[in-house]
Amino acid sequence: MNHHFLLIVHLLSAAIWVGGHLLLVFAYLPKALREKNQRIILEYEKKYEPVGMPALALLVITGVMMAYKYGVSIENWFHFETSVEKVVSVKLTLLLITVLFALSAQFRVIPKLKNNADKLSEMSFHIITVTVIGVVMLVLGSFVRFGGI
């Protein structure tokens, strides 16, 4: 598949994933915390998830495909030998951390949050962490254009 096409899909998916989380952090989360109303977060999540999760899946697929095009196959992941391998390996590590936070939120925090606004602070930590990770991954990806880190 054409590298430029993969890059465009990857960037559009990143805009949806990271942009959606930034919107959540800067628009919805402060209001939910101020009003102590977890429904604000839960309603946003319900609307965002059908768009955000496919975007994340496309990010993973296109990211792996582009890594292969840069010569970073699965055998080279986590070797940290070349500059691009470093970017790919750090992004994969951050992806794993994101998945762990998502699982924690989905199966541990959100079920409690539905009936208890006191869990907003814990959910806030998850939201902010995943957002920061998304921004860091976006910045790391930009380094590939310059040969990696």
TrEMBL record:
Output the InterPro entries linked to this UniProt entry.
CopC/D, Cu-R_CopD_dom
Copper resistance protein D domain ranges (all copies): 46-141
Q: Which UniProt keywords apply?
A: Cell membrane, Membrane, Transmembrane, Transmembrane helix
Q: Does the keyword Chloroplast apply?
A: no
One of the record's GO cellular component terms: plasma membrane
Q: Which domain of life is it from?
A: Bacteria
Give GO BP annotations, semicolon-separated. copper ion transport
- Transmembrane segments in this chain: where? 6-29, 50-68, 88-111, 123-144
Q: Specify the protein's topology with respect to the membrane.
A: Multi-pass membrane protein
Compartment(s): Cell membrane
Please report the name of this protein according to its UniProt entry: Putative copper export protein
